[in-house]
Design goal:
This protein is an alpha/beta fold. It folds into two domains: 127 residues, Rossmann fold (3-Layer(aba) Sandwich); 273 residues, no CATH class. It has 17 helices and 14 strands. The two termini are 22 Å apart.
């Protein structure tokens, strides 16, 4: 069974505009399946195969000559230097298009699982020649098989979309949190422990082992668990390092590997020259709550819901869903999502920035309390417009708490 992805429209659009498309993201997020479904007639090759990888490394020209175009190349991070030869081929095609010999058309689709490496390499080598698209695990809307768009915390937009809402109580939401959104796991429901253990082993062996000493893979596995236990918290590399038995420098390096692989995302604090009391430490979130729950050792959604970590997991779920909705619209989050915390412990869970307007968001796993918006007005210090805020919780409709804030059901994200 194939679940249609919100990114499909963006990919088909760029297929008519670029000579190359580069998809990147964590393992098992459905990149190859989506591309092969959208372009069934294109030749497909994976650099996981040693003979293909060796040829692409030793003689990239011959490798490309041995395959027809349009060509899908999977696991491009295995031979990143291949992008240089692809660049030359694209430039040759563009030159012929100028003289009228051939029209500009899609030649290559590249996919890979090392987010940072692929994005940086493609940005440098294939600048202006490829569309860069990030793929995440299944979003809530994709699981429900409904079309959805970017989550914009504007009250009028949310109220207009409210008719499409499928309300869910907290128990159902925590079942989703527990399962996560890896397409193969969500669709086929294999044994959970076997699936995630295999996922972690494959990730360590194929991705992490290329970046750290193989003898330290067991330490890295422990590091993943320690970070999972701190999802939705501020980063403290010294504390994490002490828990694993590594120094803070190694902790920073290993965290960058998790981020580069699409396993986690880092949320930066909103900063301004006027805000001298802002804590500038970023927060960390796992992008798949199912993987995070497995690493933390939770074996049942009901136990997780009643655990001391339930609030952290609910916040992780909300943030990851918002991030997916933005990325599924073909956008990046770096200039859109932030959080606020100062030395007086005043905090706003999320700040959504659009057109220099600030939208404060608080996240509550139950029905938001009366004073959930108590810190929203602290954003006035930035001398920027502050819109009506949201309290994202398990309520069943969008309705006002007061003139400064509205309750918003978590299921509204991505509609």
């Amino acid at each position: 069974m194939y679940y249609h992805r919100q990114l499909e429209q963006k990919i088909l659009q760029t297929a008519g505009e670029y000579a190359c498309i580069t998809l990147y993201g964590a393992r098992q997020t459905g990149k190859s399946t989506m591309i092969r479904t959208l372009f069934p007639d294109y030749e497909y090759v994976t650099l996981d195969k040693s003979n293909e990888r060796i040829l692409a490394t030793d003689d990239p020209e011959l490798f490309l000559d041995s395959h027809s175009t349009p060509l899908i190349i999977d696991e491009i991070q295995k031979v990143p230097d291949l992008m240089e030869t692809i660049k030359i081929r694209i430039d040759e095609m563009k030159l012929k298009s100028v003289t009228g010999e051939v029209p500009i058309s899609l030649m290559y689709i590249l996919t890979g699982s090392n987010t940072h490496e692929i994005r940086e390499r493609a940005s440098e080598t294939l600048a202006g020649r490829t569309a860069l698209i990030e793929v995440n695990s299944l979003s809530e809307c994709e699981k429900l098989k409904i079309s959805g768009g970017e989550f914009i915390p504007d009250i009028k937009i949310l109220q207009a979309k409210q008719q499409a809402l499928i309300p869910k109580n907290r128990h159902l939401i925590f079942e989703e949190i527990f399962l996560g959104g890896m397409p193969e796991f969500w669709i086929n429901r294999p044994d959970r422990d076997t699936f995630f253990e295999s996922y972690i082993s494959t990730y360590l062996e194929k991705d992490v082992s290329r970046m750290i000493n193989v003898g330290r893979l067991d330490d890295f596995r422990k590091f993943m668990r320690i970070v999972a236990l701190r999802t939705s918290q501020q980063l403290d590399h010294v504390e994490i390092g002490n828990a694993v038995g590594i120094d803070s420098r190694t902790s920073k390096n290993w965290l960058s590997i998790l981020e580069a692989s699409g396993i986690i995302m880092i949320l930066q604090p909103y900063a301004s020259n006027l805000a001298k009391r802002i804590i500038k430490t970023p927060k960390v979130y796992f992008m798949d709550t199912g993987l995070c729950a497995f690493l933390c050792g939770w074996s049942d959604p009901a136990i997780l819901e009643d655990s001391p970590m339930s609030g952290a997991f609910f916040e992780t779920y909300v943030v990851s869903e918002i991030v997916k909705s933005i990325r599924n619209s073909g956008k990046r989050i770096e200039n859109t999502l932030f959080y606020y915390r100062d030395r007086d412990q005043k905090e706003v869970d999320l700040i959504y920035v659009k057109n220099q307007i600030l939208f404060p968001i608080e996240i509550k796993k139950g029905i938001g309390k009366d004073k959930a918006d108590k810190n929203f007005r602290i954003l006035d210090q930035y001398k920027m417009p502050v819109e009506t805020g949201l309290i994202i919780d398990t309520s069943d409709k969008v309705f006002p708490l007061n003139r400064n804030a509205y309750y918003c059901p978590v299921g509204m994200i991505g509609l």
